[in-house]
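Hi team,

As requested, here is the filled-out complex form for the 2-phosphoglycolic acid run. I kept the field names the same as last time so the parser does not choke. Let me know if anything looks off before we queue the next batch.

— J.
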Amino acid sequence: MRKKLVVGNWKMNGSLARNAALLDGLATRGAVEGVDVVVCPPFPYLQQASEVCRGSSLGVGGQNLSVFKEGAYTGEVSASMLLDVGCAWVIVGHSERRSLFGETDDLVAAKVVAALDAGLSPILCVGETLAQRDAGQAEAVVCEQLRCVLQAVGVDRFVDVVVAYEPVWAIGTGRTATPEQAQAMHREVRTYLERSGVAGGKVRILYGGSVTASGAPQLFSAPDIDGALVGGASLVAESFLSICAAAAAH
Ligand code: PGA
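And here is what came back:
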């Protein structure tokens, strides 16, 4: 049985005061039974989140990491630094990193390796653009993104990777993939992993892209959807907790 996982990707949002209210709203509500819940604030606020979440069931993750361990890499943040400030998780290869900051499949693969080597759980984002979907290439694009990581990580260690399927056209657009579209891609991902020799039944595959409290129950009822990576709706305690509760109900 794969335990459901709901991850809040705060992106570049927040302030000490706003985070305090949001974290308080999440932490004081108590554990969501049967679901792993993680928040990923911007780097400067990780320590703040870790302090509030300590002793609660909430996990904390970074939104990115460096492939390097330490040294003269201005502006970079290493895996060990994330661990040091209380992170157990890290998002890798988000489509905004790929499209706005030039992250290639190879760089993303190296970051997943860096995370695993340090003992962080990577949440690997994959997903196609609308043009790629319209051209019938969605599955091929996603499988190629997975292949690069698989090659770098190896089949045995890939079970420690969480995959987040985030169709680029659904991120921040209010246009969610239908549960059928999402389930079909999740099945494709799991089948691809199994064909490649990974124990695919053990890998958690999250859906991301305009997930809301109202749409979450239907998504979570799909057999291969093991949770969600939530952007906008994770900035409001009420809606994020409703999504977590929907995960618990399935
Ligand atoms: P969204 O973002 O929920 O605001 O669409 C999801 C993500 O980018 O991880």
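Two things worth flagging: The beta strands are 4-9, 35-40, 58-62, 89-92, 121-126, 162-165, 205-208, 227-230. The chain has ten helices and eight strands.

Thanks,
J.
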